[in-house]
Amino acid sequence: MHTALRYDAVARLLHWLVVALVGAQFVLGWTMPDVHRDTQPVGLIAAHLIVGTALLAAMALRILWRATHRPPAGELSGPLRVLSSLTHGALYALLVAVPVLGCINASSRAWPLTLLGVVPLPALSPAGSSFGHAMGDIHGVLAWALLALIGLHVAAALLHRFVFRDRTLQRMALW
Ligand code: HEM
Ligand code: HEM
Which residues form the Cytochrome b561 bacterial/Ni-hydrogenase domain (predicted)? Predict the structure, then answer.
């Protein structure tokens, strides 16, 4: 396929890196121990924090890249084009909001955050803050909204591939 019909290599790499990190976050979020007042951020919880901050960094890069590089011209028209833009916009919004809310919650528990275990990150809320505590609940709820949108997005990708039989899926193919 002509390369100009695909997203550029960096956009494709970041798309699939974020997919992998988000997948890991759902598995970790659902399998890590319940978080209570005195829970320490070790084991699977520590992994959820490390992968989560890496995801946030990948999203920052991705948004910068997207803002400075045009995607390939699309073949969609009319309502499908609008639906696709809305879904992509909402995916971007939730891919930032869910991790940020998680970080706010972690800070309210006085859990230190680092980028890849090396670079210390600033706390996003004061320790003990009830606002930060509430954001933990919203983190869990919005994670479900993100999952629903991912379901819609993946269903659309499969529809393009197997029903419309167009080239949409190849636009994001890793190689
Ligand atoms: C897209 C990325 C993320 C997803 C999909 C995700 C998903 C989840 C899920 C499913 C839970 C369990 C919720 C529940 O059982 O009610 C959870 C809990 C939690 N997550 Fe995340 N998470 C993400 C990013 C992050 C980040 C970046 C941080 C912080 C650095 C974080 C910190 C937490 C904390 C502290 C909890 C426990 C909240 C509580 O029970 O009060 N998460 N996450
Ligand atoms: C099997 C899983 C997936 C497939 C096959 C897939 C496929 C695609 C394709 C083909 C596009 C380009 C659509 C176009 O421009 O016409 C795309 C874009 C996008 N995907 Fe996925 N995707 C998958 C999973 C995910 C997941 C899990 C997320 C979120 C975590 C996600 C987030 C996005 C976003 C935000 C865009 C918009 C890119 C942009 O234009 O900036 N995708 N995906």
Answer: 6-172
